[in-house]
Amino acid sequence: MNKKRWIALLVAAGLFFASIGFQFLSSMLTADFENMFSIPEEDGMAEKVVEQGSNMNKIAVLHVNGVIQDTTPSTLINTTSYNHSRFLKKLEKAGEDESVKGIVLQVNTPGGGVVESAEIHDKIVEIKEEYEKPVYVSMGNTAASGGYYISAPSDKIVAHKATLTGSIGVIMESINLSELADQLGIDFNTIKSGKHKDILSSYRDMTDEEREILQTMIDDMYDDFVQVIVDGRGLTEDRVRELGDGRVYTGSQAQEAGLVDEIGTLDDTIAMMEEDYELGNAQVIEYNQGMPFNQLLGGTVQSMLGSESQLSGITELLRQENAPRAMYLYSR
């Protein structure tokens, strides 16, 4: 390599590291220093004060963003996507903390796994019964399928008029590649212990018996979904089944149908809780997971990588989802 190429390489490297420094400095200048260096408690979570008020009367705002799945995203690059175990810990912390007088869930999700959605639902019911704390839901752009499932047991559901919600139902999908494989001359050899061991295989047609088996499973999960809404919203089973044909509703339509209580924003939802439970001087908080510096660094890396970090997340999702599964999920 000649001298000019070495110089060009050094200049490029210098520009790269200068860019990193600029991104980091920009993050530092725009960071919330009051909360950045708060000390995490034993559970690794630190409180971030969103609205000042009495620290003996708190409202905890917890965010459900992204597909509800029990996956473990990278803690460095992916600092904002949904983390199931982390969310359950936050929910438990808000329930146990005596200074937290109410919980607001900001739900922005198309749904997700059947089991994960049920775990959140059950935790909300437990908090309401054991700690006697109100739980309100503020719906974002989308709060469909599993997003509605976890909202149903709350004391009040508030949606934006343009929120997409509903999508009450269960879905399980697979791809049949058998015809394509035949055209390409590809053979698949399967050794199995029973005739249904490769049910929903992508390499052969589904039998009528297998379809009946899977439909029975889906119907059972759907019955559970219906019962959750009956218990949480006080609607009749017939009415829920009428509404729950899989379609989505706008927030305004959902309010007319009785699936949503009020139309409003997250701030409106917090204000409603303050008024309903005489918490006018409440301190509104959120929970940060881990050291705030890691979150800052992770956000900087994510902003630099841009679409590459999103591609990494999609790749990870595909890697973990090799097998078909039943989902409370609104998919298009």
Automatic annotation (TrEMBL):
Transmembrane region(s): none
CDD domains registered for this protein in UniProt: S49_Sppa_N_C
Keyword 4Fe-4S listed: no
Domain of life, source organism: Bacteria
Pfam families: Peptidase_S49
Residues annotated as domain Peptidase S49: 130-278
Keywords of this entry: Hydrolase, Protease, Serine protease
InterPro entries found in the cross-reference section: ClpP, ClpP/crotonase-like_dom_sf, Pept_S49_SppA, Peptidase_S49, S49_SppA_C
NCBIfam families found in the cross-reference section: SppA_dom
Family membership noted in the UniProt record: Belongs to the peptidase S49 family.
Protein name from the UniProt record: Signal peptide peptidase SppA
Organism lineage: Bacteria, Bacillati, Bacillota, Bacilli, Bacillales
